[in-house]
Amino acid sequence: MSDTPAPKKQKKPSLTEMRRAARSFALQALYQWEMSGNAVADIELQFRMDNDMSGTDLSLFNELLHGVPANVAELDRAYEPFLDRALDDLDPIERAVLRIGSFELINRIVVPYKVVINESVDLAKIFGATESHKYVNGILDKLAARVRMTEINANRGK
């Protein structure tokens, strides 16, 4: 008999963790898309080859990576009225986070608006400038008030 302990089984990531990973990878891929101008399909292939995405909600990653560029003009128009500067003056990370958050607020109604905002704020904290998470929070909160009014009112009535 050996004295070496049995290897520990790796814990399967929760759905929340898998979605968080998908948003993180999507943010990085969308940043690369904006900065490089490369085709989304090429960036997706590179991400899938270069990263361990086994703990990632690949469906969400795919939806964000393809959905944001396909709707980028609509998404930018949705949050632009709440900006205090020109869209082109936004940091590329802030812009990518706002696009992901806007996409989810508008197109992924099954995700509670508070979750969308919190996940976007977390992305901004990890990848953005020091105070960008506060800016992202304010913009998405205002957008949520416009596109998720029914949900917000229902939560207030509880």
UniProtKB/TrEMBL annotation:
Name this polypeptide is given: Transcription antitermination protein NusB
Residue ranges of every copy of the NusB/RsmB/TIM44 domain listed in the record: 21-144
Family per record: Belongs to the NusB family.
Entries under InterPro entries matching the protein: NusB-like_sf, NusB_fam, NusB_RsmB_TIM44
One Gene Ontology CC term in the entry: cytosol
Keyword field contains Metal-binding: no
Gene: nusB
Alphabetic keyword roster: RNA-binding, Transcription, Transcription antitermination, Transcription regulation
GO molecular-function term, one example from the UniProt record: RNA binding
PANTHER family (alphabetical): ANTITERMINATION NUSB DOMAIN-CONTAINING PROTEIN, N UTILIZATION SUBSTANCE PROTEIN B-RELATED
Purpose of the protein: Involved in transcription antitermination. Required for transcription of ribosomal RNA (rRNA) genes. Binds specifically to the boxA antiterminator sequence of the ribosomal RNA (rrn) operons.
One BP term from GO: transcription antitermination
Organism field: Amphritea atlantica
Pfam family, one: NusB
Gene3D superfamilies xref list: NusB-like (1.10.940.10)
